[in-house]
Each structure stands twice: as structure tokens, then as C-alpha cells.
Amino acid sequence: MDISKLNFLIDSLYPHYVKVWEDLCNIESPTSYKAGVDAVGLYCIAIAKNHGWQVEVHKEPVSGNAVCITMNPEAKGSPIALSGHMDTVHPLGSFGSPAVRIEGNVMYGPGVTDCKGGIVACLLAMEALSKSGFDKRPVMLLLQSDEENSSYTSEKRTIGWICEKAKDCIAFFNAERHTEGWTVTRRKGIVTYRMTVHGVGTHAMYCYDGASAIREMSHKILELERLQDRDGITVNVGLVNGGSAVNSVPELCTAAIDVRFNTQEERCRADAYVREIAAKTFIEGTRTEVEAVKFRAAMEESERNHELLRKVNSILGQHGMQTLRTKSSGGGSDAADVSSYGIPVIDDFGTEGDKFHTRDEYADIPSLARAAKRIAVVVSEL
After folding, report:
1. pLDDT tens digits, one per residue of 217-261
2. pLDDT tens across 345-381, in order?
3. pTM for this structure?
4. At CB < 8 A and 24+ separation, what contacts does 273-282 make?
5. Residue 313's closest CA among 182, 223, 224?
């Protein structure tokens, strides 16, 4: 493969794909808004059909539909998968209208770096590969629809479909936000618990006869958040709701608990701790229930993933491109599910930016070309 030609094609296509990037991010697509997520998928499908690429859609009744776009579907070589998620965390209207603004080399808007920039980089790399005559292997672009809530909306069907589509791939590159010179080979898993405390309600003037569910929950929160190990298990009680009036002793209080872990052993230990605190009574007359409502696997350290990174760095180094060091992340990702499926994975292969999950989310626009070149050269040479 003539890499200089490949890079020239990416540079020539780059201005068009900056506009594609802007268009995709102006389609607001919070996870709960199926119409918006599906509109992002349809935009990408239109690009794929324009190039004659194969399109498959996994339809879902509540979450957005997952999409698989395949270039060279009949090629004999082992396939490679690229991936990104179409949903965002931002409620509709969070960024105004239009949602995207550009200032110099910076793009602001919902999902510009998490993760629509990565999707656009994959599409740009695929078009450049196609125009350069690359045909030795199938290249899949797998678009996830409910990544931001750990595929809870689809009851894990979307990520299960993606893993099944990628099962024969020799590599899976997840185009989450990239930090220059780094990639991720380990991520924490996440379990979300719902804890419910039942107390004894009464008028505030007789508070000594009641049993406050909020007070009981307060004791439990302090105990739960004793688990705060930056490199190990963390517990965060992020949502609390309770009580009905200021002059009533609250008889109900609920809390949403975020627990993060590196390994299955840590997960079991954290689960036992949460349930131990739930069973413990601090205020006489209260009782507590707890259930795990969401789960995302950990992306554990794997020689399979490190071997892929060594191959990638060899390719990047041969072509004078920046090689990548590895790090761990406390944030969840679809890469964890894919890695646990036995597929070699490298995460954080997309565009550069920061402040994701906030109204200040931004992306470095020139990083689109850098990401596409990194993706294209690795796909062509691996």
C-alpha cells in the first residue's frame, strides 16, 4: 500500500468530513431519544450506500438501532472492526440551536469527541482506503446506539450483536476520545445499584416516634463511600431521593450507587460490601433493599490486547507516526465487552478533545485527519 497516497487522499477529503462531523453533532442524540440516535445511523448509512458498502441494521424497539457498515465484504482476508457510539449524554437543547459551534480549530457540541468525532474519523479512513484500492480484507464499522447507559435500554442486545459481528476479527479499534500518544488497554467495570430504605413516617412534631429513611440512608452513604481507591474499587452515591414534606418524617429514601472495579474478584468483593451495608441497620425500625440494575464488564489486562498494540506500534513507527503508550481508565466502554468476548481490542483510537459529558465538550478539529491516518495505515498494514 502506498501510504503517501493514502495520506494525500485523507488530506484532500478532510474538509468534507469536517462538515460531516458538524452535521452529525447537530443531530442531537441522547441515549433516550431513539429518533435522534437513529437519525445519526441513517446519516452514516447514506454515506455507506453512496460508496456501495454493505449495510446491516440491528433494530431495537426502545433504544436506537445498531448499525454494521462493511467495506470489502467478500474479501478473503481476516476482517478488522472499527467502532464508535452514536448516542450522547446531553439532554435535547443543551447546546442551543444549532448545537455545534466552531471557533478556529476547535469544535464545540454534543458528542464532538465522545464519540462522533471517532465515527467520522473511521468513515474518512474507510473512504481513503477504498479510493486507494485497498481490498485485501473486510473492514467493518460498528455503530453502537446505547453505549452511554451500558446498553441498559436494549438489555445488552446491541453490544451482544456487535460482539457477535466482530467475533472473527483480528483486531477491534474503538474510536473513543484519543489522548495524543496514549491508548487504553484496561478499563474499570461498572455496577449501578438501587438501594431503597423503608422507614416509619409520622408528623415532624412526633419525630421521636418515627424512623427516618433519609437518616438511615445517610449512615449507609458514609459507610459505602469508605471504598475510595483510585486504583481499585470506588463507590459513589450519585443520586438520592427521599421524603414527602419538610414537616414529615420520611418513610422512604432511594439512592443510586456507582461501583467501579478492575477485576471480577474486585467486583465480587464490592458486591458483598454493598449488600453488607444494606443489611446493616443504623436506625431502629428501618429496613433496606438493594438490587444491581446496570452492569458493564471490566476490560482486564490481556496479553492479546498488548500483542495487538505491539503490532500497531511497529506499523506506526515504520511510517514515522507517533507510537502509543498504554494506560488504564476508570470510565466504562464497549471495548470492555468486546475484549471479554475474546477479540483483540485497542481503545481510545478516535479524535482528540476534552470536557466530554459537560456542556463545554470540545474537539480539536485537525485531530480528525491524524486519527484517520492512524486508522488507515494500521488497517492497511496489519
Report:
1. 999 999 999 999 988 999 999 999 999 999 999 999 999 999 999
2. 999 999 999 999 999 999 999 999 999 999 999 999 9
3. 0.90
4. 273/224, 273/227, 274/193, 274/195, 274/224, 274/235, 277/220, 277/223, 277/224, 278/195, 278/220, 280/220, 280/223, 281/216, 282/215, 282/216, 282/219, 282/220
5. 182
